[in-house]
Amino acid sequence: MAAREIRLIGDPVLRTRSNEVTDVDGALARLCDEMFETMYEAAGIGLAAPQVGVRQRFFVYDHGEDGGVIVNPEIVESDGEWAFDEGCLSVPDLSFEIVRPRRIHLVGIDLDGHEISIEADELEARLFQHELDHLDGVLIVDHLDEDQLREAKRALRERTLAAGMAAPAGGGLRLF
Fold first, then answer.
1. Given 37, 65, 124, 131, which residue is catalytic?
2. pTM for the full model?
3. What is the CATH number of domain 12-79+101-140?
């Protein structure tokens, strides 16, 4: 069983902008260890704090070539465009072609409290942008056009109903 439960679309914590981290300490490091365990178990390459119910600005990542923790991340520069099929652990079993900047310059703090500066492109840039979106209360469905969004809502509604979850009283199923 995962160290933490991954929050799914429809959970209000995913739609709230996270607070800056003020203390980089042992408690944060332990939480990051739990998040890495959760991310690996879910076969993800990134996991933001809100996805485990924590309203703080940090995420963990490991895309095979590099990994770590970025606290209070900020994109200070971006360039280009790159369309790529993107999924999300909080919107399971669905993926969408999303256009994002191809290259970014990300700054933040590591778990030792040191400033970091990363020039990233393509997959790594997308990973960082995706996780930063979570810290701002943005999900991949917010990047969809009308037709894609309609299809996403249908697929999520069908999956939820198939799982035996009843629709709320007084209306349809509200996932986003």
1. 131
2. 0.89
3. 3.90.45.10
